[in-house]
Each structure stands twice: as C-alpha cells, then as structure tokens.
Fold these 3 entries.
Entry 1:
Amino acid sequence: MDIRSVTLFCEAGAADAPLAHFLQAARHAFPYPVQSTRMATPPFPDWWPQPDATTVAHLAQQTAARGQALGVDYISLGPVLLRHDPVWLNALPVIFATSDTLFATAEIADTSGNLDTGRCWHVADIIRRVSTVSPNGFGNLYLAALANCPPGSPFFPVAYHQGGAPTFAIAVESADLALDAIQAAKTLPEARANLVAAIEEEAGKVVNTAVSLAQEYNIPFHGIDFSLAPYPTDSKSLGGAMEALGLPH
C-alpha cells in the first residue's frame, strides 16, 4: 500500500510557513511511501476577482508558483458550483492551459439534490474543449464534473475546502490489499474477511501517524479515503483482484 496523497485543505490566503512545515513533515512521517502532497482551496470563483482570460491566466500562474514554494505537488482550486455564474466555467480551459499542477472542477448536481441540466450541457462542452488543451489529450485528467460531492475528499480532482481553519486527509493507493486478500482466500466470505482485516490494520497505522501530526502542527485530521485506487501494474491491479475471484471478464 502507498499513500497517494496527503491533502491539505486551507484558505487561499493561509500563512505559508506553518503549512510548508507541516507538508515537509508529512512527506516522511508515515510508514508507507507518500507519493505526493497536495493542497485544496475553497472554490476559486469565491476568491478570484473575475473570470476573464487574462486575469485567470495570471492568477493560475501565481497560485501554481505559491504551491511550488510550499512544496506541494498539486493544487485543487475547487469547483465552479451551481450557485456561481456559469461564465466561470470558461476559466477552466485557461487554467489547464496555464499550468499542469492545477486541478479544478464543475458542479452539475449539489449535495441538496439539485441537478442543473443546462449546466450539464455546458460542462460537457467544457470537457470537450479541455480535451484539446494539451497535445496528449490529458487535459481532462485535471477536471471532473461533480454530482453530490461535499468538500473534504482528499482525492483529486474532487478535493476542495469548505473554508475556515486548515485540515488534512489521506488518500491511499491500496488495490494490492484487495489482490492479496483475495488470492489468500478459498471462498468469497473469506476474501471479504481478509480484506476488511487488512484495511483495518493498515488504516490503524495511518491514523496513528496522522493523529500525531495533527497534534504537533495543530491541523485537524479528517480521515482516510480508502478507495482502493489501483495502479497499472499486476501487483496493484483491481482487474487482477477480480480475476483472482474467478471472474472471466
């Protein structure tokens, strides 16, 4: 198992030095490799002044430079929410064309059950436009359409901060736990029991370290996202885990 991200949630104007010290410590504190440290802000339309292309490009460059100075690998600027003017959606292709360390998203359905079909069409067009931002077509790696996604998830692109004091959460890459659990089992109930036990054991180790960091740096720990998060190798493949269950396809 690896830690894919230690994600710090904070206001855009939070003091840099304490955050940098925390992020540096977090890279080396856990009993697993930490692949990246990341920062997630409140939704960018709430703290950027206007969505014209020149302003957006300037602020994107400025934000990316700040992240580099802090020692974060990636920054999520949060979503264009349903309550925001849809003109902000046009900022997304500009952001991704400006930097390859910035993520951002667009909400199509909120956590109260409201779905905006017009926004769905608009976001679909933005996704099409973003697909051509880079020659390799990877622009949409940095974008997602959000439905019923509250703040606080450590995985990107969905991550964003609800505002207020900094917090942090952990995203893990743990498909190998599922593969090992299934390969060691003779029945489905045994595979399930193995996986539950493995997750609980590894989560306990992560929590112990995270709680210590939270106490030392006065930044509350808000949990682990234990989505199995595969990686394209045989040892970390969810497909391999499914095959180990005996599924042919």
Note: Residues 172-244 form one domain.
Entry 2:
Amino acid sequence: MLEEYPLGGYTKYEKISVGWYESQNYLSFKGVRDAIHLGATCRKMHTIIAPFILEHDKKVNFSSALLLSVKKGSMEGVIRALSHGQDINTADRTLFDIFIMDSDGYDYYTEYWRIPIFSTLTSLHWASFYGNEELVTYLLANGADFQQRADLGSQHSLETYESGDQWESETLHWSHSHRAMMTATKEQYAAFPIYSDLEIPIGANALFFALKGSPSPIHRTKWDASTFKEDDLLVTEDESGCRLAITKRLIRAGSSLITCEATKFHALHQAAAYRDI
C-alpha cells in the first residue's frame, strides 16, 4: 500500500489540479494516508501498521514524522518517531512553496505547483526557534547534534530553453521567510544576494535560533508563512523566558558561542542586538 502511490513527495515538484468537485485523487502522500486511515480502524490494527508507516517515513520521507512533530510541539509524536529509529539530525524536507500556475478565474478550475524546499534545518533548530525547552532537552538527551549548522536552503525552478524545459536548483526567492530567519540583523538580511546558483552558506547553529526563539502564536504564524515582509521585525519579543532557558541548556551541552559562521556573530552580539541581555 505504501509503495503504490508515487504521487506526492519531498523531492520532486507536484502538479495539483483542483476542480469544482471534491476529489481525493489529488491528495499528496495518498498511500501513507490510506495506511493511517486503515490503522485508525482499531487499536490492534494501529499497533501492527504504525511501525511500518514510521519505517517507511524514515526511508522515503526523510523522517518527516519527527520534524513535523517537533514543529507542532508534540512530545508524544517525537518520542514515537525516535523510538522507531527516525534520524534525529536529518535535514528538514517538509517545507513547500505553492504557486498558482493556471486558473479560470471562477474557482471552477485551478492548477497549483507544489515545489519542495531543500532545507538544512534540523529538529533541534526548530525546537530552539519555536522556544520549546522541553523538546530541546529531550532532543539533546537523545543525541541531537547541537553543533550542526544550517545554511539557506534551495528549491527547484522550471527554466525554459530552446531545447526544452528543465528543472534547476536555485536559492529561495528574495522574499522567502527563511532569508530573514537565517539572518541576525536587518543589515545582514539586506546584504543577501537575491539570486544565486549555489547554496548560500550561513552556518547558523541551534543557539542562533534559540536567541531568536519564541513559543508565541504570533512568532509561529510569522515564520510558518513563506513570505517575509520587509517591514516585519526579525525578532519577536519573548515574554516567556524560553530564550534564556534554552540558551543555558545549549551552552551547557557544549554549543559553540559563535552562532553564525558567515558573520562570526557571537551569542553576546545577538543578545545585545536584540536588547535581550
């Protein structure tokens, strides 16, 4: 069941056509959805099927169950994913950009292209950025690499040539929220090259994201969006105290205080820049 539906995935673009009628034919990850629905029919069936789903997810979908659980703040989901051997340090492949490519203007027919983002963020980066001290503590205790660094990700774009159309890798579009997420100051954000054929090195560690982190819904809503507005703040005010708590845990674990290799930013520089001293 899990192998019969190649439609949808984290490595190739997907064309999604939506008509006025409701249909299940265009749902991504259809095989996984069917397996989950089957497992939900009774507890015994769930016990049998769940390990196969998580193993398939690890092999084919880049341990997405772990990454999605971390981003949703689900400790139960994280524990279950790790108990089935999902890779705690895998790069996040659960992100997409969605573009409307064709529409009749009346909502009777719309064609979308869903394009995967090739990110280098890990579960520890996300837990730190979303201010979840409990998850950070658990991930560190289970082997999360606190020294692993992230760069600006890439995506595929369709380029038209005389010889035919061809998919090419390119950096995220100029207004993508990850460009702001990966920068410590407005000056650094403004200095980003708009277009580049190569991955832009940043070298941001978990401590970098912890110093910008917050568990607030406003923070999550801003960074869940794919577009960053230039008049938005790079850092959301933290009223929970999570930044200090997570920063302490990462430093005690042995994290480098150079939070960004590209700028040689020190943790103290970030804290002072954010007036979070």
Note: The radius of gyration is 20 Å.
Entry 3:
Amino acid sequence: MDRELILVVKMGGLGKTTLANQAFDDPAVKKHFAVRVWVTLSPSFQDRRAPQGHLQQVASQTRKSTPRRAADTSNCDWPKMMIKSVLLNKRYLIFLDDIWHKRKWDAIKYAFPNDKHGSRLMLTMRNNDVASASCANFGWKVYELMPLPEEESWKLFYRKTFEANSCPPNLEVISKFILRKCEGLPLPIVAIGGVLASKDIRRVDEWDLVRRTLRVEIDSNDRLRKINKVLSLSFDDLPYYLKSCFLHLSVYLEGHVIKCMSLIRLRVAEGFVQEKRRQDLGRSCR
C-alpha cells in the first residue's frame, strides 16, 4: 500500500486538532502503526529553522526505537536523512498540526519515505489553497470540517455550561441568542460555555450582561473575528490572578511540552504565586 496524505482543512475553531487527536490516540491506530509522531508546527518558526526545528522534533521521537547515531551537525540535511533512515521499512503515522504555508510543508515532506507499507501523513491546515498545493506527489484525502448542526451545538453547550442535557427555562431565550452567535463553531461554544458556567443560573442579569457584551462585540464582525471576540470575553472574565498566569504561557512556543514542576517554579519566581498567611489558609478552608 502506498503512503497516503490526509488533510483536515478549515478555519480555526472547528475542532481539526481535536478530531485528529482522537484518531491519533485510538487503540486500533496505535496497534496498526509501528511509529506514531505528533508535531505542532508553530507559525513563529522561520523556514531555515524548519529542518532543525520541526524535523528534529520528529527525529527525537523516532530515534527512541533505534540505536543512537552520531549527528553530523555540519550537514544541514542531516535531520531529513536521519528521519528517512529511521522510518524506512516501517509503517508510520506522522501528524503535523497547523500547516500555515506550503513552503513549510515543502521544507520537510521529502524526509518521509514512501516504501509502500501503508504509512500515513496527517496534516491540519486552515487554507484550502495550501491544501490543494500540498497534494503533489502524494495519494491524498481531504476532510473539510463543517460547523456543528444545531442539535449538536446545543448538546455541547448544555454539557459545558450546565453539565446537563437541558437548559433552565429562565435562561432559554438568552442561551438561544448566545448560541446563535457562535454559528456552530465548537471553540467559541466551549469558551462561552466556560464563562457562563461560572455565573449563577438564578441571576438572569449576569447572563444578560454576557449577551449584551457579545451583541456589541460581534454583530458586525466576520466569523473568524467572532471567535477572537468570544475568546477575549472568556479571558476578560478570568480572575485577575489567573490572567497573569495565562499570559505567562505566551513565552512558550505552540505545542511545547511544559513540565509541571518547572512551570510552578517559574511562576513562584515571577511572583505569580503569593505565599498565604495562616489566617488566609484558615478562611479558604471554611
């Protein structure tokens, strides 16, 4: 079986990465492929760094099952050569998340051998033109995600907002308005659901404030900007002490694995974690 390219395409917020992650972690998929590698391609990388950055991430995963080899760092093509040699004669699944530009794919695609073992390369991207241009020299399938139908949107909204399968009668009108503004996009539904979950369901005025804020912010915007506005609203609703912690995450590249203890030490050093006095601890335990 030939190697195949699988493209999951559409704008951000539709759940491309979530869908691909479910397939990637499926037990049957784990059993079927000898090597599985997941790499998030950050837009901040420059093309010259792609082989040493993105390909090195792939290399660090695939080399675990092979004897260590001395890296010829003087040869800029070494990452491609090494990855190709490691994957050769193996059925592999390589997942590359968030391809923004065709040139980024062109810089790394020749590292993956086509040895007719039924390997798969799975890419998520937002641009249909990039998807079409990426298919050259590959057998390929394209999955274009669509917004959730109304019934599925309600189910997701109920689950994230009320942890139930229904909406309180006093909030039905407001909920319908808010959900309609999300246009079936999972990301804003989950984000606004998180905001509303923290509100008192008996306080219709709190919910109406969210509704009025959304109406002012997104009535005149396109779909992508609506997502950004909803996410901004969920950020603005965070307690002040969590906002600093959230913004601190911007120092990491997208897809970077953050070690828990390292993050805690950094935040303590930055002063984000305040020492509690005994009386404060007593109050928090009441």
Note: The beta strands are 4-9, 35-40, 92-99, 120-125, 139-144.
